[in-house]
Structure formats: C-alpha cells, structure tokens
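Bench notes, afternoon.
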Amino acid sequence: MHAVRLHAFGPAGNLTYEEVPDPVPGPGQVRVAVAAAGVHLLDTALREGMPGPFGGPADLPTVPGREVAGTVDALGEGADPSWLGRRVVAHLGAAPGGYAELAVTGADRLHPVPDGLDEAAAVAMIGTGRTAMGIVQFAEPGRGDVVVVPAAAGGIGTLLVQYAKNAGATVLGLAGGPAKTALVLANGADAAIDYTRPGWAREARAWLGGRRAAVVYDSVGGDLGREAVGLLGEGGRHIVFGWSSQGVRDGGPLVLTEEEQAARGIISRQVLGRAMLDRAGGDVRVLETRALAEAAAGRLRPAVQRFPLREAAQAHHALETRGTTGKVVLVP
C-alpha cells in the first residue's frame, strides 16, 4: 500500500509518500480500506516532535493521522464478522496510522457511516464533530442569544455556527479575509466580520447595536480572543478550546483571572481534555455518536477541504498558514 511517513521531526516537507507493507489486523482489530483520512492541527505539532496528549513524541518512522473512514476489508481474530464489507469511521486514539491506503484499529472504535453521508464528512464528524459536541455541553445556545464564533470558517467553527443557528441564536462569525467571511455568511451566520481589518471589534459592536453576546466559543486566544470577550454581556460565557492565533506549538489559551471574570460578570472556562470527557460521562463515544447522528439528520453539515494523500505535506503547510477552510481531509 501507499502511506505518508515521517522519518524525522521537522517541517511539513518531512512528510513523504511511500510504498510500505500492508498492515495486518491483530486480535480484535479490523483493517479499513481508507477512503478519507482526517488532518488535525495537532498533527502539525506532533510532526515537529511535540508530545501532544499522548505522553511523548511518536516513535519514528511513523504514519501520522488518527481519523479514518472507509470499508472494512479484513478481520483480526475474534473481530465481529458482521463488520466485513461495511462502511465505517473511527478515531484511532493514541495509535496513529491514518495517512494511508489501509489502516488497522480496534473493532470497538468503529461506527457505521450513516446512509447518505460520505466518508470525508464522516471523518469530519468523528474528530471535529465530536469536539463541537463536547464544546456545546458547556454552553448550550438558546433562542435569542447572541453567539460569537471566532475562526468561524474552520472545521469546528462551521459546525458551531450551524448548531447555534439551529438553536435559534443570532450568530456573529469572525474570519480572516473576504473569502472566508463570505463562506461564513453562506453557512448561515447573521453577520461575518473580517478580524484582520483594523477596528473589527468596533464594527462588531456597531452591528450588535447595544446587544451583548451570551457566548463566545474561543479557539483563537490572544488579542483576538480578548477583544471577542469584550463583546460579552453580564452572565456571558467564554468557552475556550484552542489558541490558534498564538500558534499551536508556542501559544496557550486565553486565561482570565477570577478577578477579571468577576469584574466583567462573566464565566470563562477551558473545556478541552478531561473536562470535556467528564462532562460526557467519561465516554467519548457519546460525543462521536451524537456528532454522526446530527450529520445524518442534516442538522450539521461539515465543510471539507480535500487533498490527495500524496499531498499530505501541502495539506499540513496550508493548515499551518491558515490557508484552509473547514476540515482538511486526505483522499487516497
């Protein structure tokens, strides 16, 4: 099979497209003929040798990627034979191997791909979608709420805009550049503002016309995140799940002190990791199942940007330089 391998930590160009032996599923595992593999911003940091959430840098050489969808083409000993030939999607967990034509994973990680959903959309929902479902656990938007979504043209941002609109909220999306703000409007946001323009926050307050936001879903942090927090009213919720404006390797989430929260009359909370899992009852499959169901029902429609598998390095570069919209997916 062909796969993308990393032999040395470093820039995107270190990802190479190679021919490697086909993987063989072990006991309780299945092999998936991959039709779509998800690319996450975290993958770019792991590629440079950061430990990420898995305890240490990957052993090299490695095949990156932890989100796949395709068709089960082989079974390991003890795997349920009913999976053979079915379209499935899975998050591989701590074991990478997704950037490939074939991938193995435990049968207990599989979800059937719902009818009417293609594999690229399924991959978006098993990763980006489950995170979006985890985020809204902490601040469900309601009818009449004003919701601010920075990075609204990204994979998670796209879904949060749709989710808030489905709940009856008024949505202000922030994105970088006219092409991305146009996508945000086409996705259903009530307004989209280009945060690269000087004075964008004044523009936002003018559009709000005296209203204050109830929720800011903050994946960007930094000065942009702080200005977005300034749009919140008393009782508003600042939900933090990233810091893309600071760089995934060198930055950190926007942290508001208890004194600052009290002075503003808001609540700020970081929700990634253990907090999100605990809120879901300790079972990440709850979030995965909900995400896939929302997509199957047509309530959430992930935006996907596809790259050929052999162009994984270009996909990483585009993601790192904010040259993508929606979920980045590799297609063998």
